[in-house]
Structure formats: C-alpha cells, structure tokens
TrEMBL record:
UniProt domain Plastocyanin-like: residue ranges: 58-160, 169-291, 375-474
Domain of life: Bacteria
A GO term from the CC aspect: outer membrane-bounded periplasmic space
Name this protein carries in UniProt: Multicopper oxidase, TAT pathway translocated
Length: 475
C-alpha cells in the first residue's frame, strides 16, 4: 500500500441508489458531497488489517471505516466541511483535526472542548479550514490505546490551484509493537517507557502496511506528503540517489529548500511536503531509509522505477513556492514573551510525582511544563498555564531541560519558527509541532487570534499522558 486510494463516492448518487447507505458506517471509504459543504462519515470500530501483508493473518486494530489508516479526507481551502463521527467502540472517543485552525468547540479534546462521544453515539464536527496543506486526524481520547491501535487518517486541504507536479502522493508513516503472531502487543502506558522515549514499535508501515515500494516512472515530478502518525518514533528519512526539496512544514508553505544533511526529519505528528524529481535509472530500486536512531537504521520503503524510458527530459532545478495561507504576521516589537520549560523524565531530574496542576489516577506524572503536570488526554476545567489577550502578539521560548526529544504541539494555531539555540530558523518556516532535541531552546511566535482553551503538549503520547501537557487560554 504505497499510496492512499480510498474511493470517493458522490453522496447524491449514493442516495439516489437507495439501499440506506446514508447511515454512518455503511460504506468503507469517505463520502464526498458535491455541495457547498463537503460531508464525510467516519465510524470508529474494531477491524482487522493486513499490516504484515496479505499472506499473514490480519492484525486486530481500531480504525475508521475499517481501513488503516483511516479514509483520506480531501477538502477545499475556505470551504465548509461536516464530518460525522460514530463511536462503534466500547469506550469514549473524540477526534482531533491536527493542525487545522478551527473553532475551539470542534478541536476534539475530551472534557476541555467537548463532551466525549460515548459508545453508540455520533458527533458532527463542522469547520471551514482556512489553510491549505497536509494535516491529519486522530483520536484524542485514551490516546495511547486509540492512536496506538490505529485511529488516525490523513486530512488534505487542497489549494485553489493544483501544485505543478505529475502526481500528489501521501505516505502516512506509523509504527506498531507487534507480537510474534502479528497482533498489537499489550503494555500501553509502561511507566519506565513513559519516562524515557515512549512506546517505540518494532514494525514500521507506510499507509497501514509494510511497504513493497512506491512505483514510479523516470522523469516524473511528484509531491510527496509525509505524515508521522507514530506514538513516539522520530524519523529521519534519506532518499537514496534523490534530492528532496521541502515546500511545506506542518501544512504551511515555506521557501523551497533542501533539508540539512539530506535528511527529512519528522517527529511524531509532524508533516513535511517534499518535491522529488525522479531522475533515477529505469528498472532500478532506490532505498528510502530512516537513520534517526544511531546504529538502528532500517529500510522504510523503496522507489521502484519501472523499466520504460523517462517521460521527459530532466527538469531544471527551480521549484515554485506554494501560495501563502492567511496567517497573521506576529509583531515581535510588541510581543508578550513567555518561557515554557519542559522538565522531568529519566536522566533529567528523575521521576516526578505529585507535582502541581491537574492529574488523573490513570497516569503517573513523569514530566511537567513549568513545574506543573497535567496527565491524560484532557479535562474539564484544566487550569491554564497562560491566559493570553485575544489579538495579542505572543512569543514563546520553549526550553527543553530534559535528556529526551519532544515534539511540542499547539492546538488551534500555527506559529512562526524564529530561532533555535539563538540561531535564526531559515526559509520562513511555520508549524504547529516543533521538535526539540535535549537542551534545545526554540523561539516561536503567533498572533493569539483564535479564542478558546488550547492544549500545548508533547506529541510523544506517553509524555503527554504522563504530564507534559498544559493549556493556553485565549480570551
């Protein structure tokens, strides 16, 4: 499964055909309406999926509409969308639309922004995405189990005009900890793992299965949308014989540039859009490797060239930038400045418990932000770490005081990346998730124009649920 190909069904035709298929869950893929409002139906339920290939027993997963990853949702920038989610699980769930700047009550955080969707219930998320780009959706309830068992899918907001490439491809990357018989291993929420790198799996997939490679043709130019949907695995991808050019980070356009050292670095929850000119030899396979973890490099997939002649001569090396999104530019001369200190974990101050802030009994507190631990997935009345005046210019300095990496995600916003350890971040990059190495200090800025209570948390899910989570209130 090298690219997502869930069929889009015309809702009007479906209704005319009868058979009662308008009910949520009666169709395996996404339903797309040819009306001013795009409409989709998702059902969260247990399913079986061929993670290890069609010849191996299927793995029991939790999925949307029976597919892994969930159905590809494609909508248009500035056009309203309604996504009805029915809960077919035996426990509460919600869906978070990761990276979308949407109304607070549509953000999908249980207790904080909505009442959880109880088993058998349906909740309709309605929003109008202001930004084009690569986003994704995933459960934000019992996140370790629900995301770790498969409840995630890609969400693409299309630009008004297609980007000039031959093909637009998604690779949704994930990893799984599987038992010898191919089932998801128990042991979610291990306290020792939570205080270190989190639950890193032993099987990496591309679009829900171990990849046999992406079929390509010499001479093509492709847009490859990379999404890291893993619980904890950080990835650094190298494309043998190719020079990827980054055109967007976390859905937000940037100045086209080649990645440092040729590696495309993706923390959990991050997305990077690259352009690849396929100038390899016809009939040859080129390795795509992840070498983030020292001495543990492995093959993620291949670029499999067919044996026919190139479709065209080699292109020039110019890459058009994507059109900008309607984000306000923060005024740093008037910005409120706040310090966000990431603390705790093993080898970085020891295990922590009983720290200030809110916690629940399901998770021990191993991490904190500014000395406060908020565990779990969301709570009613979570006390805000910061209260920000609506419309104010905000600059956050995030300082990783721990011995571990942290991809820090801010709901409801996309921030400008200013500097890392005192060095300016180039290429006009924005994001909603920034990856901090141990001891890193990163400055980001945004205009607080979206009111509500917004989570700020590490997207290594073990870290989030064991304390590295907080709330920024904008009012």
């Amino acid at each position: 499964m090298s690219s997502l190909c869930h069929s889009m069904v015309d809702r009007r035709t479906l209704l005319q055909a009868g058979a009662g298929l308008a009910a949520a869950g009666m169709f395996p893929g996404a339903v797309r309406a040819q009306t001013p409002r795009a409409e989709y139906n998702l059902v969260a339920a247990i399913a079986r999926s061929p993670i290890l290939g069609e010849r191996r027993p299927g793995t029991e997963v939790w999925s949307y509409n029976g597919s892994l990853p969930g159905p590809e949702i494609r909508v248009r920038q500035g056009k309203p969308v309604r996504i009805a989610v029915r809960n077919g699980l035996s426990e509460d769930t919600t869906v978070h639309w990761h990276g979308i700047r949407l109304p607070n009550n549509m953000d999908g955080v249980p207790g904080l922004t909505q009442r959880p969707i109880a088993p058998g219930e349906t909740f309709a998320y309605e929003f109008t995405p202001p930004d084009a780009g690569t986003f994704w959706y995933h459960s934000h309830s019992n996140s370790l189990q629900q995301l770790g068992r498969g409840l995630a899918g890609p969400l693409i907001v299309e630009e008004a005009e297609p980007y000039p490439v031959d093909r637009d491809i998604i690779w949704m990357l994930a990893d799984w900890r599987l038992t010898p018989d191919g089932q998801i291993a128990p042991g979610f929420g291990n306290a020792m793992e939570a205080a270190m790198s989190g639950r890193v799996g032993n099987t990496v997939t591309v679009n829900g299965a171990i990849s046999n490679g992406e079929q390509v043709h010499a001479g093509e130019r492709i847009r490859l949308r990379l999404i890291n949907g893993a619980l904890a695995r950080i990835m650094a991808l190298r494309f043998e014989g190719h020079q990827p050019v980054i055109i967007a980070v976390d859905g937000q356009p940037c100045e086209p540039h080649q990645p440092a050292d040729g590696r495309v670095l993706l923390g959990p929850a991050m997305r990077i859009d690259i352009v690849l000119d396929l100038q390899g030899e016809p009939g040859r396979r080129y390795v795509v490797r992840d070498d983030f973890y020292e001495d543990l490099a492995y093959t993620v997939t291949h670029l499999n060239y067919n044996a026919t002649s190139p479709t065209r001569a080699i292109r020039d090396d110019s890459f058009a930038p994507l059109p900008g999104n309607p984000l306000q530019e923060p005024d740093l001369t008037r910005a409120e400045r706040h310090q966000i200190n990431l603390q705790g974990g093993m080898m970085g101050g020891g295990m922590m418990s009983g720290m200030g802030g809110m916690s629940d009994m399901a998770h021990d507190a191993s991490w904190s932000i500014n000395g406060h631990s908020m565990t779990g997935d969301g709570h009613a009345n979570m006390p805000p770490l910061l209260t920000l005046p609506r419309g104010s210019n905000i600059m956050l300095t995030m300082h990783n005081q721990t011995a571990w990496w942290h991809p820090m995600h801010l709901h409801g916003y996309s921030f400008k990346l200013l500097s890392r350890n005192g060095v300016s971040v180039p290429y006009n990059q924005r994001g909603d998730t920034v990856l901090l190495a141990p001891k890193d200090a990163v400055d980001v800025a945004f205009v607080a124009d979206n009111p509500g209570e917004w989570m700020l948390h590490c997207h290594i899910t073990d870290h989030q649920v064991s304390g590295m989570s907080s709330v920024l209130q904008v009012r």
